[in-house]
Amino acid sequence: MLRVSMVLLQRQLVLCVWVCVSSALVVHSLPWSVSCPAGCVCQIKPWFSPQSLSCEVPTVDCNNLFLTQLPSPLPLDTHTLCLQSNLLSAMETPLLQTLPNLTELDLSQNRFSSVRTLTSTQPQTPSLRSLLSLHMEENQLRSLPPAAFSSLPALQELFLSHNQLASLAPRAFSGLGSLLRLHLNNNHLTSIDPLWFTTLPCLQVLMLGGNPVEVLPERGFQALASLRSLVLGGMGLKGLPERALEGLDSLESLSFYDNLLTTVPTQALRRLPGLKFLDLNKNRLSLVQTGDFRDLVHLTELGLNNMEELVAIERAAMENLPELTKLEITNNPRLSYIHPQAFFQLGRLESLMLNSNALTALHQHTVLSLPRLREVSLHSNPLRCDCLFRWVAEEHPHTDADAHTDTQMPQAVRFIQPQATLCSEPPELRARRVREVSITEMSASCLPLIPPGILPPYVGVREGERLALHCRALAEPQPTIYWVTPSGQRLGSSNNTHSHKPASRHYSKPASRPFSKPASRPYSKPASRPYFKPRSSLNSKPASRPYSKPASRPFSKPASRPFSKPASRPFSKPASRPFSKPASRPFSKPASRPFSKPASRPFSKPASRPYSKPASRPYSKPVSRPYSKPASRPYSKPASRPYSKPISSLNSKPASSQTSNYSSYHSHLPSPASGNASVLFSSLTPSSPPLLSSPAYRLLPEGTLEIVMVTSRDSGLYTCVAENTLGADTHSVTVGVQGPGKGLRQQMLEGRG
């Protein structure tokens, strides 16, 4: 039996000395009957080659023995020598040269300050011909000389991470033509020299993370045509030059974990035609904008996790990623908005991770655009179980829109951790599991909601800087977003991306109001004025008077009008009235008008005319009456129009169109007693439609207000308003503008002196 075991062991040793055979079985350590150094353990252990092939090899384990020199005697058949966590500072190379089968040497966590003792004194004479893997992590290396490892021609893996490397010779890796994996992460390198990589044509994995390199050079990795994985995490990168990654045609995996990127390096990423895995976790992105990941046609996995400042994902941010199968956007505490069309043309997406954010909903259109979606994670979000979540409860989720878009609701979408996917709003459904809420408990439409975390309460900015305020909202029907500036200026979007157009709100469509176009105003054309119609029609049929419908006229009190008593009117005989022929009325001769004789007109008796009551009639001042001075008609000055109080005009709508949300909007605005009230209210009147832009402001698509160059006049309260037919929601942010730094001002004063 023992003889059979020895035969099997010899066969395994022969197979694994030079060639590793892949194995699907986990094999435990076996005893190795050799003379082992004192304190060390000699066993047959599994070993993985640089190509990830597994085999069983003779291993000498001398870790954690506080050795100051190599142990002896070492078995001649040693394949792997582990000397981790000792006190070694020099290596007896001749002793290692007696190990012809040595393929892996682990010298990590020792006291090496130089690599000269590892190589032959004669660079042309290789010292360790068979060595494939060298581990020197967590030593005290400070620099690498030229051709530092040239005596290791077969080396395929070199681990130099967590040292104190601050400088590398331009040709430090000369002679390592077979190197596949190079770890230089967590050192003190401040720049990257493209000459380091010119002698590494076969390199496939490069790890540079953890070095304080703030800027990557142009074409810095162009020599690495075979590189498949690049890790640039934790380097303090704030941006990426457009050509920084040029030449990496074989790159499949790229990590920017834990950097300072504020935008997606779109242009640099587009130079990676084979990219499959992208890690942007723990950066400082605030928005994922339209087209940021467009046309990365081979990307299969994308990570956007752990971003403290990420608030929104815009329309078509993930456009045209035909091979993307997994998308992770988790643990972003301020992420509260995902555009319904953010994930566009993701035909193969199967896994969507959105847990632990600040999302209130996942729009139905988002789910409809993902035909192969199989699992979604939404737990640990403040979910609103209302109209935006009806797709979860629908038994037959297909809609009429699907017929036009050729998309269908994914079948059997599985919720990850469904027991933790709970409703946060409305109050009657709070703490209910989303899957347990029926469709009858969810409304078909809902008010706009601006997520609380999308805008901070205060933003500080210096003069001359650019400022962008991002406001987003979801509702059904989709809301329209506009801004009100501190001066009362109302800015609306030129690119309204929402399907809803609120035609029923007079203030939202000024062009449709009777007084918004002077050409159509009742007093602009005497021939069409209601007052020029024969008075007999008014006397005989009071019910047909144009003022009989106060709801459609700004004069809401027809009872107090002088025309309500036809018997006392001097125009009771239309045949004799000069106004019976509107076309021939002598407006050009005020002297011949019947109104030119106040003594003979009822207007001369204020007591019998409602015009004597200024509180009830805007025409209490005959001097400004439009009949005597058409140029000074009150309708030419919006400030004096009956609609000068927009609050009353808004409240004149039926009570069903007013909501508590809209009243809260006015509570944020200055009161009429404040100095800015008249300016603000006049800007919201029907005669002042939303401006598309102004010299100081620019409204970008989706509701972003941009101030290109901030001045001290831009400080104040900015209010974002999101509204639909049901009501409105608002959110305000205070902008504080600081002057230039004290040092700069001092320099200016000194320069003037």
From TrEMBL:
Name-wise, this protein is: Leucine rich repeat neuronal 2
N-terminal signal peptide: 1-24
Start and end residues of each Immunoglobulin subtype domain = 462-727
InterPro entries named in the record: Ig-like_dom_sf, Ig-like_fold, Ig_I-set, Ig_sub, Ig_sub2, Leu-rich_rpt, Leu-rich_rpt_typical-subtyp, LRFN
Q: Which superkingdom does the taxonomy of this entry point to?
A: Eukaryota
* Immunoglobulin domain residues: 456-738
Q: Which PROSITE patterns match?
A: LRR
Q: Which UniProt keywords apply?
A: Glycoprotein, Leucine-rich repeat, Repeat, Signal
| Amino acid composition bias (Low complexity), ranges on this chain | 656-668
Organism, by scientific name, is: Oncorhynchus kisutch
User: Where is the sequence biased in composition, kind Polar residues?
Assistant: 486-497, 646-655
Q: Where is the composition biased (Basic residues)?
A: 498-508
Map out region (Disordered) in residue numbers. 486-669
Recorded hits in Gene3D superfamilies, A to Z, give: Immunoglobulins, Ribonuclease Inhibitor
Residue ranges crossing the lipid bilayer per the database entry: none
